[in-house]
Model the fold of this input.
Amino acid sequence: MSSTQTNPINVRFAGLGGTGVIKASDIFADVAFRQGHTVKKAEVHGMSQRGGSVQSDVRFGAEVHSPMIPDGACDFLVVMEPTQIEVVRGGLRESGTLISSADIDVVKLPSAKSLNVAMLGRLSRHFAFPESAWRESLRSNFPEKLHIANDTAFNLGRG
Amino acid sequence: MPQPPQDKSGRLLLSGNEAVALAALHCGVALGTGYPGTPSTEILESFSALGGKAHWAPNEKVAAEVALGAAFAKARVLCTMKHVGLNVAADVLFTMTYSGVDGGYVLVVADDPGLASSQNEQDSRRYAEAAVAPMFEPADSQDTYDLLRVAFETSEGWHIPVLFRMTTRVSHSKSPVLPRFAFGIKPSAADTGAPTTDFVRNIAGRVMVPGHARPAHRRLRAKMAEMEIWNNAQGPNQIVRRANQLGIITAGICYHHAREAAPEASILKLGMSYPLPMQAIRAFAASVQRCVVIEENDPWLITALRASGLTIEAKDDSIFRFGELSVDRVKRILNHDTSPEPVPPRGKPPELCKGCPHTSSFEVMKELDCIVSGDIGCYTLAALPPLAAMDMMIDMGAAVGMGLGLRHVLPREQAKRVVSVIGDSTFLHGGLPGLVEMAYNPPETGHVLMILDNGTTAMTGQQEHPGTGRQLDGEGTHKVNFEAMARAAGVKNVFTINPVRERAMLKAVLADSLQKDELTVIIARSPCILAAGRIAAWDKEQKAKQTADEQPAESGSCECGGACKS
Done:
């Protein structure tokens, strides 16, 4: 048994179905996983394309047990849709970071659909993962025709 | 489908459903069959994407029967469904445990504690006990991958179909998987240990008439007794030994909640929960000062343990029987904390997509003040405001029968307003016998059945079904004809109307049909807007193929330019 048990980093993605919540969480989980972390990711599918509230939890570290983030334990809350901020804000730790679409200059987005990628760019500032890892994961999760627009969106968020 | 991410040590980040698919491939599964249902749907889709042979059946019962035939022929088969699907397949389940199988038969059933996308919170562990089927319960994706092989070996070793119980959080959570027994994409039977298929006659073993079933029941109970001994000694159960003040007995996703909620506790994690390894449980309980069962939904495990004389604590079922467990809830259970739980703010409920053809159909029914006997699919969302245009929904196919029942007993003026409404996939799943009943025992006021045909199983993510003309992997196949089916059953008035483009006609035909004391089937046909592009592209491709096939075999073999179709 390790005596220096470290808590996992908890990142919750939230928004409405069809706004790229699940996709963003997939990409983030992918980046952390390829960097050698144990990653767990939990969400509820089924209604995700029907415009209802959607949340996806990603947890990573040396050891992760439950795939679901405990109450009030989110280190980061990434909210794609402004109306959902108050729905999910209670999940954030006191010291946690909220990232919302207000942090992105949305008029500069190559397309409205790429907001989730810009939010990932914004989130990437808070992690030491190499920039190339993010770009690699973006490329492997999207068709080639979106790669250039995604680079632009990611740069916009990362700043 | 993008490739799953892989880390430097060769681990893949997979959902539980993807882990079932990968393990099935590595176990040499000859056929996967099932019916879509959240949270189980992605298993067969992933298996097919990996190169496995996978089919959607019209319903779970047929899927389980197809799998049984294959298992009689010594194949390894995988059958998948959601928890309520097992109700449909229960008839097969309860007697195939008597007959047993010659190959390996794993039936994956995915429960939905908390009802993320289901109509009830039933607990499939009760099926294991009731049908006398061994049950495995994985806790995460690696566990799923590893246990599936044990499940096949158990099925083959004892010649019995086994249940493999997933839950929403196991099926849909992603976690790392080391593919320990990978054999490449198309493993041979010799690589996987899967037997070679063969038919060996065994009438007394497979024809379950009373004379054969009586000894079969005794054989089954004897197998269970042997399996319990095996599960005690060698079963896929695991003890995490920590301090002895607190011991937790658990299975499935609850194992991970418990590890996190009580890192100081010793834990007995059950991988095979039926038949229970009672001796191992007894020994574990005796090794700790305080012993608590952590389980979601029904008090199934605790009831069994208490019945065997053990003094063990459990959750307060007036609170924790409802909904899924979590780290926080497990802490509450362990601390006997029954104070009110925090209520999360209400999110936005799902709704029919903008431009969904169902909206138009339900608006028409609302305008005509229909009493709507509804069914299961995206269109169930029409029950919510602002439409609020569905009056009942219980189970797959029930729209037809419930509508007929209403018509039989309601006063005439109310009976005349009743319409049964069902989707295309749901109609083929469970509505067909209802259609036959409608023609066989018609109400005095007649009846109207509306089949909302959007050309896909939309709710679960646009799966194919026998009415789409495509198999699970997109291959073209025979397309069931709803209109001909309704006429063959004995329904006189059959209409096909596009509810979007011909909305006025739909309203006129429905109003007219409600007036008549006759049987009417209206097929409201317009593709799901999420699937329309894909369906149109497929149709175009088929037409192009057909045109190519009609070209002369050798161009220039005659001078007609292809007109002769030689």
Q: What stands out?
A: Chain A touches chain B at residues 1, 5, 16-17, 29-30, 33-34, 36, 38-47, 49-53, 64-68, 70-71, 83-84, 86-88, 90, 137, 140-141 (CB under 8 Å). Chain A has a mean pLDDT of 92.
